[in-house]
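Re: beginner question about structure tokens

> Can someone show what the tokenized structure looks like for a real chain? I only ever see the sequence side.

Sure, here's an example I had lying around. Input first:
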Amino acid sequence: MMASNLFGQFHVTPTSTAMKEAYALFPRYGDYQELRKQALKLAFWPNGSLSASGSVCDLNWEEIDGMKAPRACELRVDDTIGGMNNLRVIFYVFDKKLVLGGDVLPRLWTIGVMQKKTQRFSPNDLRTFAARVSIIRRRIYIDYL
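And the corresponding structure tokens:
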């Protein structure tokens, strides 16, 4: 079991879908690890924050408009990684600890990675994010709902 003095306020857990999307964007291992390093900064996401946007370390985030509750958020990565800019890490926070999993921290789930070319998300993107959040909630947090 890990020590209870872990860094940050959340355990950042990528879904397999987010990892596949990241691998597709960054076939070079070093670029993939750079994106991973940026996403791990989400461990410092403000616990219990009710605002729809904010900052995490040197990154900024915002709830995704157009989604019904529960809403996912987008982490905007301003760095250019592997020649790509305007990257987004889509994430979802369920702020309760998993009792059965023995978690010391609540989990923050990365559910997608994309290079955003326009300011808005398409209706298909919004449906995809909502489905991914729904899958996490049904598979992992069914006892908490």
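Each token stands for a local structural state, so reading them left to right follows the chain. DSSP finds three helices and six strands in the chain.
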